[in-house]
Amino acid sequence: MKITNVKTFLVNPGVAKNWLFVKVETDAGIHGWGECYTQADRDRSIESHVEQLSRYLVGRGPTEIKHFTYSAYTDFASKRGAMDFYSALSGLELALWDIVGKALRTPVYDLLGGPCRDRVRVYANGWAGKAPAESAEAARRLVDTGFEAMKFDPFPGPWRPILTPQEERETLEHVRAVREAVGPDVELLIEAHRRLAPFQAIKMAHMLEEFRPFWYEEPVSARNLDALAEVRRAVLMPVVTGEELYTKTEFREVFEKQAADILNPDICVCGGLLELKEIAAMAEPYMVAIAPHNYNSTSVGLAATVQLCAMIPNFLITEYFVNFEEESDAISREPLRLENGYIRLPTEPGLGVELDEEELLRRPYRKFLKRGLRQYYEEGP
Which CATH class is domain 110-347? Predict the structure, then answer.
């Protein structure tokens, strides 16, 4: 079996994000679907990377997955990776696993050690409002649908060297409103999007302790792991990092510096399924848990994440964007099903989902509006 063609589908699902899917075809009539992480208006660049990387695939066997990713990094990227490259590489890698699973008529998780569980726990994202009352009401509705864990970012943006006393109070009131709305047993995952300086991150963590956060995600950037380790040593809640890191090479220092309790790599950008499995294996002896990030569709991106979560022993929880669910289901012929905050492992071969090309073509790429550069004290989009 040889690869004959690679197609890209850059679509807009009606939300403030485009999705990029890849379809890898073979001469055996078997195809595989993958998804590339996308962000803002770098989508065309990522799509171009997919098209160029297809030169390394057409005419080769789909089982040569490790050789492809190694050659792509060492030859195509000349060992100089970036988000655009890793997003494209990850999407193609996922499509190859989908082909192999379909060819062998088994889910991908059976090819890499088998399942450690029969369902995968998820937390809700994409639900919170700007005002505390709005978030509180949305959180109540999530609990009614069965979610027992939800993530949101209560901090003002963009990057802040320091929060004003009013901003600190507003952040606390936002978290307080959600906690009071959902009660004591629902897990609240606090996100900071790498916006805080270390001292501010530590101060806010101590102020947030009364609300018992499940975790503290990216209080500072992983590009300064000494600063992140400083925060981890000073706070009493688990610190999460990983979505801005690629491949096991970049995660190595996180372990060495003991900078995080939980890692959240994204399968659609960290290097793909096998790379994330290897990152998870590295984390095991350091007693670090894995909670994959998934700012992708709840179709291919989530399906690949579920395959990974099924087979790693140190899995904790993964991300589910509730505002992506409707459109993801519309483009999927066999959508994943959420049941009370869990997803049952699919038993279909490959990644377990199939996309509808006609539906993809009905949702063309959308270029976003101009966005002004601003400081943290300026108003604007």
Answer: alpha beta
